[in-house]
Amino acid sequence: MTTQVSTRPSFITKVPAMPRANLLWQIVLVTRRNLVTIARTPAALLPPLAISIFFLIIYESTLGKAANFIPNLSGNSYLGFILPLSIVSSSLSGAGIAAQNMVRDIESGYFDKLLLTPVSRAALLLGPILAGALILGIQATIVILVAMVMGLESASGIGGLLVVIGLAVLLGTGFAGFTVSAALGSGSAAATQGASFIFFPLTFLTASFVPLELLSGWLETAARFNPITYVLEAMRTVLLTGWDGAVVWQGVLACLLLGGAMYALAVRALHVRTSRK
Amino acid sequence: MSNGAIVVENLVKQYGGGVTAVNDVSFSVPVGTIFGFLGPNGAGKSTTIKILTTLALPSGGRATVGGYDVVSEAAQVRRIAGVALQDIGIDPLMKPLELLTLQAQMFGATTKQAAARANELLELVRLTGAVDRRVGTYSGGMRRRLDLALALVHEPDILFLDEPTTGLDPASRRDVWDEVRRLNRELGMTIFLTTQYLEEADELAETVAIINQGQIAVQGSPAKLKTAVGTESINLAFDDRNLAARALDELSQMGGHVQMDRDMVRLYMNHAAERIPAVINRLRDANLNPISLTLTQPTLDDVFLQVTGQRLRTDAAPQATDQESA
């Protein structure tokens, strides 16, 4: 390039040698950008939140009275028992938001443009996932506030509520790893939407409406292998009976295992998408 | 360091199923020039640009961009190359400054540098008036200009434009052309441009390569290529293909190069105007009556027609300046 002519006019300032922006900053940049676009599509945000609240109200009013006949639940509020299920379903919708962002970028071609920059691949993956997690944290908080208006009392106070939100965010991050993988793998909004529903049955193959001890047969077996069971258990324990470190850690561990596996899946999906053919 | 900003040697790209998209392509683009890569849909233009911009791997041969190998030094290539692909990749929900700032930050600019650069580029592509609008509301021409600005964020030495004016109205095409010329002249940027429009290559490029079915059919400066086609042509239209085919037979015996395209026959020869009476007489003797006769100065279109045997201009192409005159 010895003969490169360089007569740059004044309207183009020479940008000093650009170093590679550090990873953390890149993640912040991509996450922030995803939050901006999420905020500009409120239509994608409100229905999932409304459905979570709707479920909460329906379950409470149809099953709340019957719950007194469930032996293990005697003396506890069914609201505190059913709230975690509603929260878990909002985690699913948060994961959906992350994938929708990813798939929109793929469809618009913006994703390819980002791939042609030196940005870290990890930042491209984590940006939408973290933005989705943040949104679902806010949604979980709103659902909890609604539950409190309905009469929820946390057995472990504010700290317990924060644990519930934290678990919801962790779980949602794991789900998002999966839905983002589907987005990367398919590159299609419809397929991504379809894949997001795979987790939906998981919220029922668990101790959804009654405590785990009351389940039997294949459903009990399924529930024992379902990570959501342990997350629900942890949330219910802090809401209904109080602090129990072991149960909470079990829930966190379940989230981390799910999240780790799903993130690995997402990394793999990104690798396949970006491998030059 | 190198003989050119872009050097391509015996490039091959095969896809699964035995499809060869690019077949032994070689060319070189001198630093600071505009290179026009011309061909119909599916000729191998986009595949070549994808290989050169590191989005795809070649199956054979080698290519360097700015002296860097596109396979083994992809990261370096990305730093010095700006790319505006045919499908404009911009998120419709974002605003222009957000896109430009983020892009600059991705290349390592600080927040302050990125903001300054974004404003500068927006001015360069004259979009400051639409600064508060989401990109989704932009017209095709505005989107192209913004996409061009995004490709320029890191001050590339070499700019790749894949069909930059496809789908644009004539006024927007002119805008893009002006921009491309300005970048080349004022910044000394080397520009590799693919196009389906002969007129575009003629307007902008110092060197043109015509690619057809994965192979370079001919390359050189537009002027040189036009001269090589020979000279003028006499164009004769007939009622149908059969008549045209018969005319082709007749005219092929007149000395000069003949070509048929649907119901049209073209006869390339020197001093064509003086030969018109002879042509008419010959056709009349064979009982062939053309429905129209025109005389054409050579254009790149003719070059294309001559080297590939088909017309390039598609129905989707905007109105081009046709120099045919009766």
Strand content of chain B: 25-35%
- Secondary-structure-based class of chain B equals alpha/beta
The end-to-end span of chain B amounts to 52 Å
Number of helices of chain A: 10
Low-pLDDT ranges of chain A? 1-18
**Largest sheet: number of strands, sense, barrel closure of chain A:** none
The percentage helix of chain A is over 70%
Shape type of chain A = elongated
What's the structural blueprint in terms of helices and strands?
The complex is a heterodimer of chains A (277) and B (326).
Chain A lengths: L22 H17 L2 H22 L14 H31 L1 H6 L5 H29 L7 H30 L2 H8 L20 H9 L1 H14 L4 H30 L3
Helix pairs in contact in A: 1-5, 2-3, 2-5, 3-5, 3-6, 3-7, 3-9, 5-6, 6-7, 6-9, 6-10, 9-10
Chain B lengths: L5 E10 L3 E11 L4 E5 L6 H8 L7 E6 L2 E2 L4 H7 E4 L11 H11 L4 H14 L15 H12 L6 E5 L7 H18 L2 E6 L2 H7 L2 E6 L2 E6 L1 H7 L3 E6 L3 H11 L5 E5 L2 E6 L2 H14 L6 E5 L3 H9 L18
Parallel strand pairs in B: 3-8, 3-9, 6-7, 7-8
Antiparallel strand pairs in B: 1-2, 1-4, 4-5, 9-10, 11-13, 11-14, 12-13
